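SEVERITY: medium
COMPONENT: batch folding queue
REPORTER: lab tech (J.R.)

DESCRIPTION
The queue accepted two submissions in a row. Attaching both inputs and their returned structure tokens so the on-call engineer can compare them side by side.

ATTACHMENT 1
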Amino acid sequence: MSYSTPSTPHHGAPSDRSPVTALVMSILMTLCCNQICGIIAIVFSVIAMGKDGAPAEQDRYIGYAWTTMGIGLALSVLLFFGYILFFSGLS
């Protein structure tokens, strides 16, 4: 039994994260949840889109965009429940 080797060298798996996906999610977050973190995530996504020649830098900026969106979503949820708890305690 012989194992064949691939004819082309493997330079790493392609990134599952796309700068376009991060940009779309950032825009949706800006419109729906947290404008400040959404705008920061948009900036990171646009920077990532400009880093086509450097996939490591592109992945880094996409990670920054997703991290910023996660922080913004967490803040939005906390503020929402804080708002509900605050006003339910007043009545």
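ATTACHMENT 2
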Amino acid sequence: MFKEWIFRLGSNPKQSLKRFLIGLAVFTGGAFLIGLGYVYWPLLQVFGLILLIPGGLIAAWGYSGVFANRFAQVLNQKQYRASLFDNEDPK
């Protein structure tokens, strides 16, 4: 079950990278608004928090997809190496 979930989550690395970058941009924009609110207008901090939370969640979702893709490659390599030794003929 875990293996299928990893393969499904990492099945589209380009989309995962796109999600990560969009989430990172939204998160960075929220952090920037929090900083601006500290200096200029405190209500900007509220808008920054509103952007910060979904941006962090989207970035985490995208990063987990990128990580799952890399981890799925490791699992495939391990399975491939195990299959090399299973097919040996006994002497």
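NOTES FROM REPORTER
The mean pLDDT is 87.
No errors were logged for either attachment.
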